[in-house]
Amino acid sequence: MSIAYYPGCTIKVSAPEHELAALAVMRALGLDLHEMREWNCCGVVHSLATDNLIRHMAPVRVFARLQQQGEREVVTLCDMCFNTLARANQVARRQPEQMDAIKATSGDELNYDGSAEVLHLLQILRDRVGMAAIKARVRQPLHNLRVYPYYGCKLLRPTEVGLDDPEAPTVLGDLMAALGATVVEGNLQTRCCGAYHVVNRENLVAERVAATTAQARANGANVIVLSCPLCHFNLATRQSTPGNALPVLYYTQLMGLAFGLPPATLGLPDATALFEEALPTAQHAQAVPMCTKGER
Amino acid sequence: MTTSIRIGNGRNELLQKVEALSGQHLANCYQCGTCAAGCPFHQAMDLLPDALIQHVRLGLPGILERQTFWICAGCDTCSDRCPRGLDIARIMEALRQICLREGGDHPALTQLERADLGALPPIALVASMRRNSG
């Protein structure tokens, strides 16, 4: 089975490890993701003003290209791309006259009828592959990891496009449990990380990151797992405890480790301090007694 | 400080613009404060979201000088939880757009060093740019 894949800018520029790991684990599960041709930036944030039609043009161009390429479904890894594409798709379905305007503006080049389906990779894993099949593929259960799943905003809200219960999501936790990890919960898992404020209001991001990582630690986590490249950037680079930061990894990377794939193929440089902090025991979970590093 | 309010006397132009740009009917707000209670950034705001809505409805002065709608990151927690179905993130966007369209864009990117530009993920830069341009 092969599904069209929309990477988005940040996956290519700032989070290639997420793509590397995603493609590797999907191959291991017998699913192929083929990158769609001629994709462009999705616009990142959905246009919230009623009269700002031009800002829907970027995601609509992606859909028009997809349709021209004979594809109906498209999967993405990035939470912001997922959210922006899914919300633009809603506009296409609910306000077809806006699509007519975009078509006219583009000289009839961008013709989109709202028929595409936008999927996040987590939906493919949960709803098509299934947690049982993922569990069956595990070769090195992550018994020594106590994982704090961080959801952030764009996977969950607004509810009409979110892929899980916005107040009590379970998809990342269920996935981590299927990999053999212990799941650590907390009420900040669904709170915004500060997002783009990292550009010029860093204090807002620093405060959110401090609270979230403090909760993860207090509840016993030794690693944070997430999906969004912007949450990853903020949580990984804005912790105020250099040298003692909680490792932040993509769920695809932990899946790859549990599947027994070599760390280098998951974008996990095996010499970094972050890596050594939490994962050595997981890598050798079958060979090493469980009460070693991870349980200090 | 005493502020005089003339309710129902004259047009509330800002309210009309906010409602037109957001598609939201601000009279629907019953001031329960759910938006403020769930906002991850309420401590940094100079007016909580429910109070901001009330200021717009009453036509109080100084609304466009407030920081609240710039601090809103559009996480949609308030919009998702509002018991009156108001999409508060759209109200914040409307206020940003009014400022930007009347006062000009002020993209934060122009103040960044080259090294920062290279280090920040594109989604942070594009999102910031979009929130700070009309």
Automatic annotation (TrEMBL), chain A:
One Pfam short name: CCG
Residue stretches making up the Cysteine-rich domain: 3-85, 150-235
InterPro entries per the UniProt record, alphabetical: Cys_rich_dom (IPR004017), HdrB/HdrD_reductase (IPR051278)
Superkingdom of this protein's organism: Bacteria
Signal sequence interval, chain numbering: none
This protein's UniProt keywords: Oxidoreductase
Name of the protein: CoB--CoM heterodisulfide reductase iron-sulfur subunit B family protein
Organism annotation: Candidatus Chloroploca mongolica
Automatic annotation (TrEMBL), chain B:
Keywords: 4Fe-4S, Iron, Iron-sulfur, Metal-binding, Oxidoreductase
Keyword Transport among UniProt keywords: no
Domain 4Fe-4S ferredoxin-type: 19-50
PROSITE patterns in UniProt: 4FE4S_FER_1, 4FE4S_FER_2
Domain of life: Bacteria
Family matches, as Pfam families: Fer4_8
Name assigned to this protein: 4Fe-4S dicluster domain-containing protein
Organism listed in the record: Candidatus Chloroploca mongolica
Lineage of the species this protein comes from: Bacteria, Bacillati, Chloroflexota, Chloroflexia, Chloroflexales
